[in-house]
Design a protein that fits this description.
By secondary structure, this protein is an alpha+beta fold. It has six helices and eight strands; from the N terminus they run βαβααβββαβαββα. The N and C termini lie close together (about 10 Å). It binds coenzyme A.
Length: about 200
């Protein structure tokens, strides 16, 4: 599917786009992950080290990409992957979905891509009636982003990822009203869905 979004600030400054409020939208492609995306996803990871991720987590992320436990999405700009995210049914509890490794290239933060990657997963999960709860963990840097989409913090473990990088466990109950709201949760509904390379 195509996602309309403002180009990043580097392109906004080159004179072609006068201001963000009237920026011409660039087309972003939100599509299913392919095995050939692994290197690009690792680049996205690297751009978020050390503030959001630690270097030791890289091997874990690469192993995850090579053995995906569930659906995985990427977002592209000019054929370059600039974000990725996945989800999976919990191996231990079939009624729980886990959000996995949601990330946007550091140069693309706060451009709306993380929300697209989150919403496409929530929409998927809402359609799976076996699932009645979503669980995920993140850090002190990003938990508020998930709160905005309905997640609640259930526990905090200081220094869990690395000194100064705290773990926030969060969840969201898949209530009937939440499911109903997801039915209308079109990803960037301003532009039509024209392709979905699944
Ligand atoms: C978390 C992450 C995916 C968010 O992606 P993003 O593209 O920057 O977020 P968006 O631009 O879509 O943000 C959507 C809204 O949330 C807000 N938001 C984004 N990040 C936020 C943050 N860290 N704290 C508070 N609000 C935030 C935005 O301002 C925006 O608000 P608006 O609707 O008023 O405009 C991104 O910060 C990231 O990749 N972080 C590194 C990886 C990471 O820590 N992932 C966590 C799970 S593994």
């Amino acid at each position: 599917m195509w996602v309309g979004i403002a180009a990043p600030s580097r392109e906004q400054k080159d004179g072609r786009i006068a201001s963000r409020s009237c920026a011409i939208l660039s087309l972003m492609l939100l599509r299913r992950f392919k095995p050939g995306d692994i290197a690009a996803c690792l680049d996205v990871f690297d751009s978020n080290v050390p503030v959001f991720f630690t270097l030791p987590e890289r091997a874990e992320f690469e192993s995850y990409l090579r053995n995906l436990p569930g659906p995985q999405w990427v977002v592209e700009y000019n054929r370059r992957v600039v974000g990725c995210a996945g989800w999976a049914v919990s191996a231990q509890r079939a009624h729980v979905a886990n959000l996995c490794w949601g990330m946007v290239d550091r140069a693309w933060h706060r451009q709306g891509l993380g929300r697209e990657l989150l919403r496409v997963r929530l929409r998927d999960i809402a359609q799976d009636t076996r699932i009645d709860a979503i669980e995920m963990n993140t850090s002190q840097h990003t938990f508020r982003f998930y709160e905005r989409e309905g997640f609640a913090v259930v526990s905090i473990e200081n220094d869990a990822f690395a000194p100064g990088l705290h773990r926030y466990d969060m969840n969201l109950d898949c209530t009937p009203s939440w499911r109903a709201s997801c039915a209308g949760l079109m990803v960037s509904s301003t532009l039509p869905e024209v392709s979905d390379q699944g």
